[in-house]
Specification:
alpha/beta, magnesium ion binding, magnesium, acetate kinase activity, globular, eight-stranded mixed β-sheet, 15 helices, 417 residues, Ac/propionate_kinase, binds adenosine-5'-diphosphate
Length: 417
């Protein structure tokens, strides 16, 4: 393996930050170039963006200049696929750097940081061991994150790597919010509420303060991350004090194909049936439930909307449950906050499905929250406040920028070390 010299990080030279975001069935990646001694106020456009769909073994790459490639990966090896993806940074039509040595730092999204990791950190052997150990809590995601770290170590053995944890933002939950009311031994076994989507919730809370021109420390915010996975966070003084996901990303809201919270008695009942195994239950709760399970149509909110328009009662029921549970959980976050200054919608559904935003907001008119129904229905390609001027609660649509949030963490760690 050829070794490249790593460009030193100094305060005024451009800094190239590679971000890797590994999911169960995809690997997303992008390269940012930051110039200057301070972070830009708005997310810059990445120089290069790539995505691997492991299910279809497909790699897509696009650059800021508009060059695009779409390739089929020759093997299902994740290490080979990641190496092929990274090589498009310095080879071929999508080349944006001369050689890998131009990359100053690499940031990874890691789903589970457990109790130990309350903030982003540089990768060391100890950190890797901890991520591996925490795989028992995140069996799909944490191993994928480790593969990404290993792929970079092979290609860029001396480049500093940073891990940014999806659980870290929720490290400030108070015990009453994170301890389950089971036997106390559960807590000693690590069975507690961790919360997820923290990178997105934190980014949205900070961005909300920026848009509103207010001090984050004086705001009470509920962030609604509604994508394939859905969760809420109650943010006070910039800290997460409550959230809907728990020990795993299965708790809380109804999701695309995940049930969210259900009576645990159902699990006991089903496991007593002769044809129910633990694996079958796992598949049902994670992949055959939620919008998909109820509607029988799809896990995709767009298709639920189409089916509703075509008169599907089950799609309508799935939508109604989604809204009912979203409202209930917003109510729960509201109680934890003791008031509300801003309600934030983000991710695929939150940014696009105006019917969901309208359905959720309708229940909170008693707070003086007034949604501007016309603005709500416009295509919101920019972050925007869609409450009426006299609304007592601001309602914001924010395009979540998890990769940018990871890049910022890298920048900050690089400049503080
Ligand atoms: P992930 O959690 O996989 O990152 P996304 O944030 O991309 O997911 O969100 C996916 C969800 O967003 C899907 O339910 C999809 O239907 C929904 N979505 C995306 N675009 C729209 C749209 N224009 N209208 C309604 N829903 C949308």
């Amino acid at each position: 393996m050829e070794r490249w010299a790593i460009a030193p990080v100094t305060i005024n030279t451009p800094m190239k930050i590679l971000v890797l975001n590994a999911g169960s069935s995809s690997q997303k990646s992008c390269l940012y170039e930051l110039i200057g001694a301070t972070l830009p106020e708005h997310p810059p456009k990445p120089l290069w963006e790539a995505q691997i769909d492991w299910t279809h073994q497909e790699l897509k790459v696009k650059t800021a200049q508009g060059n695009v490639i779409k390739e089929t990966l020759p093997s299902s090896s994740r290490a080979d696929g990641t190496a092929q993806m990274l090589a498009t940074l310095w080879n071929g039509k999508t080349q944006v750097i001369e050689n890998p040595g131009e990359i100053n730092i690499v940031g990874h999204r890691v789903v589970h940081g457990g109790e130990e990791y309350r903030q982003s950190t540089f990768v060391t052997k100890e950190v890797k061991d901890a991520i591996a150990h925490l795989s028992i809590f995140a069996p799909v995601h944490n191993p994928a994150n480790l593969e990404g770290i290993a792929a970079i170590e092979k290609i860029l053995p001396t480049v500093p790597q940073v891990v940014v944890f999806d659980t870290a933002f929720h490290a400030t939950l108070p015990p009453a919010a994170f301890v389950y009311p089971g036997p106390y031994e559960w807590l000693e076994m690590g069975i507690r509420r961790y919360g997820f989507h923290g990178i997105s919730h934190q980014y949205c809370a900070q961005r909300a303060a920026q848009i509103l021109g207010k001090d984050l420390n004086r705001l009470r915010i509920i962030t609604c991350h509604l994508g394939n996975g859905c969760s809420l966070a109650a943010v006070r003084e910039g800290r997460s004090i409550d959230t809907t996901m728990g020990f795993t990303p299965l708790e809380g809201l109804m999701m695309g194909s995940r049930s969210g919270s259900i009576d645990p008695g159902i699990l006991i009942h089903l496991l007593r049936q002769p044809d129910y195994t633990v694996d079958k239950l796992d598949d049902i709760l994670n992949r055959q439930s939620g919008l998909k399970g109820v509607s029988g149509v799809s896990n995709d909110m767009r298709q639920i909307g189409e089916a509703m328009a075509n008169g599907s009662d089950r799609a309508q029921l799935a939508f109604d449950i989604f809204i009912h549970r979203l409202r209930s959980s917003i109510g729960a976050m509201l109680a934890s906050l003791g008031g509300l200054d801003a309600l934030i919608f983000t991710a695929g559904i939150g940014e696009n499905a105006y019917e969901v935003r309208a359905g959720a907001c309708e229940a909170f008119g008693f707070l003086g929250l007034k949604l501007d129904l016309e603005q709500n229905q416009e295509k919101l390609s920019e972050d925007r406040d869609i409450a009426t001027p006299d609304s007592k609660v601001r309602v914001l649509v924010i395009h979540t920028q998890e990769d940018w949030a990871i890049a910022q963490e890298c920048w900050q760690l690089a400049h503080s070390s």
